[in-house]
Amino acid sequence: MENTAPTLLIGGSSALLMAAGIKAEALGASVIHCSGSPEDIIDTVRSEDPRVLLTEIPPGFSDDHTEAAAGLINKLCKLFPDTVVIAVLCTNVRSIITRFSPEKNLRLAAMPMSPGRLAAIAAEHAKRKCGNGLQPDIADFLREKGFSEKLSGFTPVCNAVEMCIKEPRRLQDMMNAVYNDVGERSGSDGKTAERLIRFMSLDVHKNGLTPCLSRGETCDKLTNNELICLLCDSFTAQMKAFGTYESELI
């Protein structure tokens, strides 16, 4: 049976989660709020069976509280593998990441991130099931980097990055091994896919994202090959750091 359960926001007193919840509802997600003891949260998740569980580790937590919060998130991931658990990390990201288990349904969102962007990620996960490969995570990654999903090149770039991560040899022949297959996925052709990715690269350049993507090595417009290579490297490094989809990335 298709899961029509709501997006669940844990910690209703958090201003960030409250704002994200309002924006997620505006995007069409059904939202409920839950707080209380770990047992209360687990019982609520079990009874509501949500597509997405949104929680956070706020700033100012002691090491003991952070350890307990991460432990609860790990437990929720194991107990409810069909629920995507999005944990918002508000401080000490590098030290907190090591406290999480490498669960495939865990997503870590590091601050700063606006409530609107957080809501968009949660609402997108609420529309789909777990286990749809890398593309949903690549789409989240691009949004976090500032890519505009309103542009028609957004999905072709997602597809190209996913293909090249799984089969890096594709990068040696972009037209035949990337553009043609990307075009086929969208019902077009290789020339159209190449043009859409090129326009996305131009938008990245116009919005000043190139220095960040290239780690300061260039401010020039990236070629399609350079853009896809940089995105593959950055996404792979982030997923390995978060312990997510490690078996697929190695």
Give a verbal description of the structure.
With 250 residues, the chain is α/β, with parallel strands linked by helices. It is elongated, with a radius of gyration of 19 Å. Strand 1, helix 1 and strand 2 form a beta-alpha-beta unit. The N terminus and C terminus are likely disordered. The chain has two domains: 125 residues, Rossmann fold (3-Layer(aba) Sandwich); 96 residues, Arc Repressor Mutant, subunit A (Orthogonal Bundle).
Task: Quickly describe the structure.
With 250 residues, the protein is α/β, with parallel strands linked by helices. It has helices spanning 15-26, 38-48, 63-79, 93-97, 115-126, 135-145, 154-166, 174-185, 190-206, 210-213, 224-242, 246-249; strands spanning 7-10, 31-34, 52-57, 84-89, 106-110. The chain has 12 helices and 5 strands.
| Helix segment tally | 12
Secondary-structure element order, as H and E? EHEHEHEHEHHHHHHHH
Strand adjacency order, main sheet? 2-1-3-4-5
> Can you give the helix content as a percent range?
40-55%
On the 0-100 scale, what is the average pLDDT?
81
Number of self-contained structural domains: 2
Radius of gyration from CA coordinates? 19 Å
CATH fold assignment of the largest domain:
Rossmann fold
Low-pLDDT stretches: 1-5, 243-250
Specify the CATH architecture of the largest domain. 3-Layer(aba) Sandwich
Distance between the termini: 34 Å
Shape: elongated
Number of strands: 5
